[in-house]
Amino acid sequence: MRLRNKPWAKELIDAHPELIQVQPEHVADQFAQKQPVRLEIGTGKGQFIFKMAQLHPEINFLALEMQHSALAVLLKAQVDAQLPNLQLVVANAENLQALFAGWHFSEIYLNFSDPWPKTRHEKRRLTYSSFLTQYQQLLVPDGVVQLKTDNRHFFEYSLISMNQFGMQFQQLSLDLHHDDTTWAAANVPTEYEDKFSAKGQPIYGVRAVFHQAKG
């Protein structure tokens, strides 16, 4: 969902190159410590990743979002908080391997991604095989792809796509907010998640890893 343009967004982004980048070449240098890094693709306003960075100072978090107005909301919070383990990148996720050449993430988050429901747009879905290929290259061995969505069709599509790719499901939920699991207990919601859950809609989720070949 495209947000209404915020006139102050560009000025704020331009004023804080130490916190937000349009290309991630030098992002790693901005983190206070060298430690495991997790990536959220499609951060939106950043409620999820901001809270995760607060809860886990032992992990670095990278927020990727293509909408300047959305990411500027997170940047505004980060300017105040100055979390040393959170960096932001304004960019499109089409070619992640080029964007993050040399990076190795411990987890990749796909939170309430655009479901692109029309068949002709299938290749744009973030769980299409071409994206899964990129995640596999960017994740450390046993690295996790975590997906949450309110869209059952997109969730079912994602499970099929992941299964056909040979991924293994570590955890799976058809109603995350009412599950009695460690994932549910530790779950950090997104803005959309709060909105949909308040309406009584179930939140679907899966945590999956890529099959590791045995040598």
From TrEMBL:
GO-annotated molecular function: tRNA (guanine(46)-N7)-methyltransferase activity
Recorded metabolic or biological pathway in which this protein acts: tRNA modification; N(7)-methylguanine-tRNA biosynthesis
Top-rank lineage group of the source organism: Bacteria
UniProt: S-adenosyl-L-methionine binding residues: 40, 65, 92, 114
CDD domains documented for this protein: AdoMet_MTases (cd02440)
Catalytic activity from the UniProt record: guanosine(46) in tRNA + S-adenosyl-L-methionine = N(7)-methylguanosine(46) in tRNA + S-adenosyl-L-homocysteine
Region described as Interaction with RNA: 120-125
Binding sites annotated in the UniProt record for substrate: 118, 150, 190-193
Pfam assignment, any one: Methyltransf_4
Signal peptide range: none
Keywords: Methyltransferase, S-adenosyl-L-methionine, Transferase, tRNA processing
EC number from the UniProt entry: 2.1.1.33
GO CC list: tRNA methyltransferase complex
Family, as annotated: Belongs to the class I-like SAM-binding methyltransferase superfamily. TrmB family.
Functional description taken from the UniProt entry: Catalyzes the formation of N(7)-methylguanine at position 46 (m7G46) in tRNA.
Protein name, as recorded: tRNA (guanine-N(7)-)-methyltransferase
Organism this protein belongs to: Schleiferilactobacillus harbinensis DSM 16991
Designated gene of the protein: trmB
